[in-house]
Amino acid sequence: MIEYGMNPIGFLRRNQKIHGDHFTFLMFGRRMTVYLDIDGNDFVFNAKQACATAQDAYNSMTKPIFGEGVIYDAPSSMMMEQKRMVKAGLTVPCFRAYIPIFIKEVNQYVDKHWTKDEDTVNLLQSISEMTVMTA
Known about the structure:
Elements lengths: L1 H5 L1 H12 L2 E6 L2 E6 L1 H10 L7 H13 L9 H12 L4 H22 L9 H12 L1
């Protein structure tokens, strides 16, 4: 998962060489299956909802951040309405405006949770908590 987060294209290419066009890896404790090539694109983009859904793929990652009944945890009709509303806030100008807020949140977290006397910090836990706070 860390390799995928740091270099997703390199991760996919390396695993494609090892495993072929279809392989599965763990992300946040869930099995994520990758389908590459033309057949993979057809499967992903033309799959029936009973076979593959964005809700199944993303719910475990977004529910802890956004809460129950929001976006991928909502019924399909409500999810589509919520996605339209959220999309307006996910533009480049909006993200630029969020940067000072992110910096403030991270600095507050560091001031509260990290002491100068500590030699080590649980970075994975801290980054996870900061991600939730900034989301």
